[in-house]
């Protein structure tokens, strides 16, 4: 029994340390079977299956009925999209639901009943599953011909609940909502007062020719409101003013006042509020991650210290190095870290570890992996060493950049010269010859660099990998071109052969060359700062992007339901319908939503068949353009300012390539949790009952 | 001679204290004649004349030849503008130049030769004057028919050099320029790479029907560049994508990438950089103002301490209270402050003041004026006291708000009902009757409040002043209406009589009522926070607004010179020319510039007669839309965040109405300059030679 207890302690410690590594909460069951289930649930394969399931259920919308996976979006040329038979997508859905049901039951079991009732996310998860399954049954009983599918709108919830970062972010956004609502209310008051003013100002006059403004924009209350709302989005900015302005210049005062107050003040106030709220957001989240890590390590220590080998003085608890060694071998973690910890354990050579020593051992986890490039090969011959010196020198890299620039310029010149030529007059000889020359240079450059640095060192630089990959692709493309069309010669314009025409191949090569030109970025100091900031931002933005996807998805599905069959392509409203016609299909919706928030703005301005669709677009504009963009600005400001301050401090260390993570960015300002906080939290653990 | 020296010291002290009050530099000549000149130069009348001169010379552009002070901007209806005879505006200009010459010579004399050579602003001032005068002579010798008037572009400089705040701000902006330039360079690289990509991607194809994208947007290099630049301003956002998108959905990836990188990342990066640079800007400027104030006071102390009455122990210098009293009586300052200082001087009742005591006396200057409302009248009769209680109660104010809201709603209902009616069908009875009723209520409310609070207390609240003023105007308007058109009755729609038609009068009354509704703002907590922030912002923004006016002016004048006679109103390009036709006139330019930065964006998109005008518009877009708007956001963020933090601290004190200034906002974080810093600065004074 003592052996079993010992085993349990060891495996508890293993799980706690793994929790610490992954920044997970340690509030789960700790009996040996649950621990096995817990490790299984958080194993790579299980989590991968879960992610795949979520991806599949979200991707279903791309092949479900009101969708079109055709290349063109033009209704005139579009072939009917493939219509999956009833039961196919539904079958896949059922499988996904089964996985989710397993997921929710394992999760609920692992945190225990008591915690389950407190966890609103799990309750919502179960509710969503119940609704979805009911909807699924209804769907099948109608043989897939039912009008509305509620479960499609609910799908993004599965994505949301699976990420703790996204849940945290959502909570943050939620706490900003009251203040945002105040500003939105202010905007509404602003809008309604100015609307009344406008209706009184631009009223219908007896002289029918004079009231262009009234006819165009302020005919009645909804029209006026729409005109001014669109003015707030600046979509109809000069146009709405022109009729009144050409009647009397003084009318412009009204529009200027409206725009200054609305656009310049109130809209930017929203930015200020959101930024103010999110100023500490990143720091807070990193701080709580640190707390989780320290807590997991401490929990492992406490568990191990209850092992039999406790020494006489019971005032301070100790952990034997042997037990820790045993635990470490079972823990799944980064190989480098594990090695480092084992090494320091050996160097320390103390038999008993105190809590502080134990924590210190695991500090290796927080350290940056300083990347060391493999050494250059050492050549014996004098000549080779000279070659190595010449081509390993940074100046050779700069020369490469100059050549790449020359290539870009030459392509540009050819493009300008060929701009107005008919395709039949075009001679591909010149471009082909240039490409051939430059690609040979690139190949040479790559080979010489590999010779000088050795393949391993060459590949250890990301910029070289980028370079090498593109050069190889270019080479393959060039060889394929020559194989198909022969070497370039004047009048090199053979007929279409094989997969791509010569012209397309040359174009493709040129595009790759333009893309390859990006290698100059790390060489420019400010640019590389900006680019690393942007890359960091993308890492930190994952949670926000996830929420954005959730919102987009929900909006896209709602849009399809609202506008299904709403638009028929007609003559004169053709152009505006270009989008509307594709709007009732998922991909289009998604792409529209993905970025073109201004589309919503312009949509507000023209008459839709369904009047209340305005509400949809206004909501969309508010969420995507106003709130999300401001969130983005807030995060960017936060990130950039931190980075900037840090750059000034660490100017000297810039040679070493850090693997930058959010945690490391805030290293200097993070507070270590105190012993008391940790122990208090540990004693609140619902399942772990410590002896003391 | 001793008396003369004493007088000199006294007047030096007076001037230094005045410098401290106005936050002026004390580095000027200090002999008695110069002091007299200095006080004269900074007297209210002189400064007022200078400001007037600047206003006049700037305003000249509104009546000079290529201008139009007509009401309509439509070239078809416009009467020819008044053309001032040659010599009139030039005469006014000469007078202005004379004033400026006096200004520059007095300024140069006062700071002394040595300082003059270091002062680049003064040199530039003189240079500007010389160029302007030369240009003026040329102008007159051509009898005002010369083609270019350089001096008109130089005019805003006079505004710029007269404000120390603006000069400081300009310096700040200047120091941000290198980083801004980096981002702009990044934008340029982004733009040019994507342009090349686009030209390769949307090349002309053999199938003429398929290359709509090429025809419309990417025909040649300048076209492609323009298309993408306009896309960066989001002016042609969905349109530019549609032809390619309807050919193949995948093309949207190109546009999405371009917009995400350009608009979302790079543009907002500019915001981040500017905000980062301006984060400490306000604090720094307030800190330097504080230093100037303390320095002025200290200088006065040092000067006074060299008076004969110095006591025996020479270790610490003292100032006699009598001398200070003498000085105080000569100083021009706020009456309240002077009284307070005199009072504390009397209370202190010490004969000799140390430096610290001296500084403490003048701390009154930094204090907020706490506004105390006069007391309510005390009535003897019990009934009157009850009346006073009822109508002085806040609930009566709330009732007033509810009634105002009801009025707004009723106007709104009438507007909606009357929206589609012909003017001839309209019956003004209903609106007239409603207005009549509500205006009587407003009058009653005002009178009852005055009765309850007494006239003085009533007028001491700004919201009551606003209310009362509007009620009085409404009353006058209503009485005028009744006098002209009789009392309202069904079918109340008499013919046009007098200055305004009945309909116009009713509309005017309604507009005033809508405006009066703004009185609810102080009653809503968040709204009042926002409004006070905005008001603060406006105060702090004066320097920025000044620079903006300078830039606008220069751009407007340049625009007139470039586009003089460039646009002739033609049939089909009529609408777009609406603006262009007015563009060669000053007011239009100015109003356009004033706000409608998007105009510039749309201008870039269509073909102008002068191709290089694009450069003008791109520059305009960069300065107005990109840089200025970002500066504005940065300031707003700074202001709002300070205010917000402060609100949390001072929640309890919100009842007292502070006269909020920038200085007070930063009170808690400002650092007092040390004794050593002050003395070091004093010893560096070019003209004042302290004994010790």
From TrEMBL, chains A, B:
Residues 49-278, 395-640 form the Ion transport domain. The keyword Lipoprotein does not apply. It is a multi-pass membrane protein. SUPFAM superfamilies: Voltage-gated potassium channels. Keywords: Calcium, Calcium channel, Calcium transport, Endosome, Glycoprotein, Ion channel, Ion transport, Lysosome, Membrane, Repeat, Transmembrane, Transmembrane helix, Transport, Voltage-gated channel. GO terms for biological process: calcium-mediated signaling; endocytosis involved in viral entry into host cell. One of its GO terms (cellular component) is lysosomal membrane. PANTHER family: TWO PORE CALCIUM CHANNEL PROTEIN 2 (PTHR46768), TWO PORE CHANNEL PROTEIN 2 (PTHR46768:SF1). Belongs to the calcium channel alpha-1 subunit (TC 1.A.1.11) family. Two pore calcium channel subfamily. This is Two pore channel protein 2. The gene is Tpcn2_1.
